[in-house]
Every structure is written in structure tokens, then in C-alpha cells.
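User: C-alpha cells for this one?
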Amino acid sequence: MNPNLVGALTSLAANSAVPAMPGFPSLQLSLGNANSPEQTAVVLKILALLTILSLAPSLLIMLTSFVRIVIVLSFLRQAIGTQVLPPNQLIVGLSLFLTFFVMAPVWKSVHEQALMPYLDEKISGKEAIGVAEGSLRQFMFKQTRDKDLGLFVKLAKVPAPGKRADVPTYLLVPAFMISELKTAFQIGFMIYIPFLVLDMVVASILMAMGMMMLPPVIISLPFKLILFVLVDGWQLIIGSLVRSFG
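Assistant:
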């Protein structure tokens, strides 16, 4: 074969070869001695952020209106007698959106007074956390009974605080939660009364007709549903729930 032809074919193959793909960026994790305190501080901030994100669902339950809303909606489902309707996913989802609605003024205050000044480097991270905590504490104090707060002050065996600013947050949070539970149960009791009266009326009619073997719940369920729809029950319940946070 002609050497010139071989060289031409080799040059053509080299020129038509597929270009090499660019390399992917590498990610390296290493453990070692920090060269400056700032490097350690950054790592600690990342760990703190990951910890807060992992506790976000618990914080959403403990520090917001979610507890009261989800319990009242669960009581409503049991009072009507529909065991699985609305489903749990729908109740939790509605409770979450109502929680966002109720807590919107608090989130707005945190955003304007803590987050934005921190991002603009007007205040430090510690000051931003303090301002955000103050907004949440103000909301929780409005919903917390003094009796419940006094219980945890006695259990902790700390001196009685003279003002709200002296109350530690670790005492305020459980007091807020049991206050929310009590309020939710009170609202649930009021929801049960009309449906219970309807059950009693239906049971009395069935006994008078001699139909004692027929469960009254089966007969009263359609009447409960139509009564709830006619009085626009969802609007009444949701409106009362939102107004209860005042």
C-alpha cells in the first residue's frame, strides 16, 4: 500500500474523531485541621442549618396553630360519623394551609424584621434569631393560658417571672401546646352537641317503631350530612377556627 495513502487516511481519522467530553466537576470532602476559626464557624453553621431543617416538621406542630386546627377537623369527622371521609391526607393538607393563613402575619413580621435585615447585613445572625423568636413568642403568649404557663413554672422550680420577657421559651412552648389542646377539645365538644342530639332523636324514633336491631348511626348519617351542608358547616367551622386565634 502506498505510504502516502496510509498517512492521509490516518490524518483524516484523527481529524474526524469524536471530541473528548468535558470532565465533570469533582467534589471533595476532607477532614483535617482548620487553618482559621472562620472555617470551623462555617461548618458549625451548616450543621445548625441541617439540624433546623430536620426539626422543621416538629417546629411547625409545636410553634404554630396546626395542633388546634387538625384536632378540631378530626373531631368534626368523628362527630359526623364518616370514619374515613375526609381522608387523613386531606385533613392534614387543609390544616397546613389554614396554618399558613393564620400564621401569615407572624411570618411577615419575621421576614421584614429578621430575615431581610440579616440578608442585607444590617443585623447579625444571633440578632435575627432573637427577633424571629420574639415574633413567635408574641403569638404563643396570646394563645397560652396563665394557668398552663404557671404549671410549667412550678414544675421547673424557677422563680416566678415578673414579665413575659422573663419567661424562658422552653417553658412557653409546652404551655402553649397544652393550651392549644384544651381549646381544641372545647371546640370539639361544641361540634359534637348538634350531631349527638340528632343521633338521640333518630335512636328514639327507631325504638318507638320497634326497630331496635337497626343501628341508629346508619339512619342518622344522611341527615347529618344534609344538615351540615344546609347550614354551610365548612364555612362555619373554618371561620370559627380562624377567628378563635383572634
